[in-house]
Amino acid sequence: MTYALENKRVLIVGGSSDIAAALATDLLREGVRVTLAGRDFEKTAVAAKAVGDDVRPMALDLSDEESIQAAADEARAAGGLDHLVSVATERANGPVVSAERRAVLAAFDAKVFGPILLAKHFAPVIAEEGSLLFFSGLGAWRPAPGGVVMAATNGSVSALVSALAVELAPTRVNAISPGVIATSAWNTAVPDRDLLFQRVAATAPARRVGEPSDVSAAARALLINPFITGETLHVDGGARWA
User: Fewer C-beta neighbours within 10 Å, C or N terminus of the chain?
Assistant: First the structure.
């Protein structure tokens, strides 16, 4: 069975990230009608404009169910969606003994509570053969000190997509688990980004860190394959085995 993305409608949540920009750019080249959504509408509008004039910005706050429902209603009024992709994330790294409840909840809003509510409100809007795609992460498979919340949220995503795939069938639900990807998010996440990248490249079987284009290619592969659902695709250069 063949499935083409041309003229399909795709909503990307977390639209101001480098990975969202890479995916949106690649989708545009394939003739997709792309919408970028984010909590900060002005920031999202700037990101959409940077990708292309045809990219539509949308306000959507994963910590606010009314915002999610309003976005779903807007999508329904515009003719529905074929695919929803959420790349949203919130960091709450640090020793568990100093974890702050507010930060932990924000991380779960982005990765777990928000996706559950996205499924609740957007599943009825998704067209036949469409899908939901969420993002897990290497931290669930290679936990490190200071990464308890990261491990918990990312691990939850994989469990969530398997359950949603069963409940929402035939709508497909999958996840991508990226490893270390060379994005601007690392500029403030670690003291020395280049040193981290060197260490990862020296140990990962792929012998390099990932690029946003690697993640985009994996996402598009999951969007077009109508026989993959309930799965987590690891895009980490084999880092979880190193």
Answer: N
Cβ atoms of 176 and 135 within 8 Å: the answer is yes
Sign of CA dihedral 151, 11, 180, 107: negative
Looking at the structure of the chain, the number of domains it has is: 1
- The residues with which 175 forms a beta bridge, in sequence order, are 134, 232
Q: Count H helices, E strands: the chain?
A: 9, 7
Q: Is residue 34 domain-resident? A: yes
Q: Taking phi first (over 0 means left), then psi (-120 to 50 degrees means alpha), and beta for anything else, what does residue 31 get? A: left
| Overall pTM surpassing 0.90 (yes/no) | yes
At 161-174, the pLDDT tens digits run: 999 999 999 999 99
Sheet architecture: strand order including 81-86: 56-59, 33-38, 9-13, 81-86, 126-135, 172-178, 232-235
